[in-house]
Design goal:
seven-stranded mixed beta sheet, alpha/beta, 11 strands
Length: 446
């Protein structure tokens, strides 16, 4: 790693001083460009997303059999999009700011199988790997009914192979549960901030959970080394995997279909703002890419991070990407938002997406807990802390006149806007754990 002169960096990038002080900051990207101009930097295109969609369609009969909770959607893993008008009123009252347009919630928090956004990318990458192995072994062709994978024969075949991943929690859940169901031997390397109930759930599914005292980066590196030493072991790399990225990207076209059914327009006069909680960046990066492919320049994606783990904002703002970590500037990377507790952002996602993201902001743990309580009280929706990171995005957009002027968003345009908060996890949080969240939130929201 390069040697960093932090004093020179803070002089060059004054925003870093506020990050170091753990203040809530918002930075709108002056270098955003059109999808057409930015696409070469991503290295992927619409065809890649269509290929991922087709693969998920092939696996749908298997998923419907293996996970009966997906039978109602024919084995397609998808979440609802709903209005949250009470939260909108609450936010406007709390911050003294009017949110023009419609406020909605994308409930990836309640996706089947693993109850988080990671059910998209994590499960997709496991399925891609399984398909490749089975086809290469002559056991499967892409014209087969993939329902046949739900059999003792295929479980015995996959049991000869291993899968490993490093995770703060939710990615490990999706990969562990899916891999074990197919028959793989799977190990999940979990960082110190991962919730105990997630570790317990994985163990119940027969997953080998390896715990670390250190943070996410150590868990990932150790998992990677394990795979390198074993020819039968496949390591799923949240930092650099294009396959994971494409699993998330499928969400864009699906959201477009949902909006069509709800008769929600997205165009120059009806902008869509999407607020995505960000950890290492794979999930929100993939979703944002899919949204850009589906809606073009009329969707505006904004990443949200905890004040104690602003790795993507730090990497993109300085242009150093994965060459700098929050620990390098004296931030501890300790947050209640376990899924976002990442000190060093994905260099692949940062470099691929930096021209396509409108902005970044940070939010305190206190705010996340406060909004968690309000979401439960006002909308009857239970989320984990990290899923609330996106909730203050509409306020940050509404309050930033420089950004709206630069992007030519008039008052009329903003009145036609849709604000979509992407809820990333919480659907499988045990009741006891949820009550603990709500108790922590109580004194903060009183």
């Amino acid at each position: 790693m390069m040697t960093l002169n932090i004093q020179a960096l803070t002089t060059q990038f004054p925003l870093l001083k506020q990050l170091i002080q753990l203040k809530e900051v918002t930075w709108f990207n002056p270098n955003i460009t059109s999808v057409k101009e930015a696409l070469p930097y991503v290295g992927l295109n619409k065809n890649d997303i269509e290929d991922a969609t087709e693969r998920l369609n092939r696996f749908a009969p298997y998923l419907a059999k293996a996970f009966p909770e997906t039978a109602v959607t024919g084995g397609i893993i998808e979440s609802d999009v709903i209005d949250i008008p009470n939260m909108k009123s609450s936010l406007e009252q709390q911050y003294g700011t009017r949110i023009s347009g419609r406020l909605m919630l994308k409930k990836d928090s309640h996706l089947p199988i693993s109850g988080s956004i990671k059910a998209r990318g994590g499960i997709y990458e496991v399925l891609s790997h399984a398909e490749k192995l089975a086809i290469n072994a002559g056991l499967l062709t892409i014209t087969d009914d993939y329902g046949k994978l739900n059999s003792d024969e295929f479980k015995a075949f996959f049991s000869r192979y291993k899968i490993a991943v490093g995770s703060t929690g939710n990615l490990g859940m999706s990969i562990g549960i899916m891999s074990a169901k197919l028959g793989f031997s799977v190990s999940v390397h979990m960082s110190a901030d991962a919730r105990q109930w997630k570790k317990n759930k994985l163990s119940e599914h027969g997953v080998d959970v390896i715990e670390y005292e250190q943070d996410y980066s150590v868990a990932v590196e150790t998992g990677r080394q394990e795979a390198e030493n074993d020819q039968t072991c496949f390591f799923i790399d949240d930092e650099n995997s294009q396959t994971l990225f494409l699993g998330y990207a499928v969400a864009g076209e699906r959201l477009k279909q949902q909006f069509n059914k709800l008769t929600i327009s997205v165009d120059k006069n009806h902008p869509l703002f999407v607020y995505l909680p960000c950890g290492v960046g794979g999930g929100p990066g993939g979703v944002a890419f899919g949204l850009k492919m589906a809606f073009g320049n009329h969707v505006h994606c904004i990443f949200a991070e905890p004040t104690h783990s602003p790795c993507m904002l730090l990497g993109v703002h300085t242009g150093l990407h994965d060459q700098i970590s929050v620990q390098d500037i004296g931030i501890d990377n300790i947050t209640a938002a376990d899924g976002l507790a990442v000190g060093r952002a994905s260099g692949f996602v940062g470099r691929a997406m930096e021209r396509l993201l409108d902005g970044y902001y940070t939010i305190t743990d206190t705010s996340m807990y406060q909004h968690l309580s309000n979401m439960h009280k006002l909308e009857g929706i239970k989320l984990e802390p990290s899923a609330l990171a996106g909730i203050t995005g509409p306020i940050n957009v509404s309050e930033n006149q420089e950004y709206k002027t630069r992007m030519k968003f008039s008052e009329t345009t903003m009145a036609n806007a849709t604000h979509l908060v992407w809820a990333t996890g919480g659907g499988m949080v045990p009741e006891k754990e949820m009550q603990s969240y709500l108790q922590k939130a109580a004194p903060m929201s009183s």
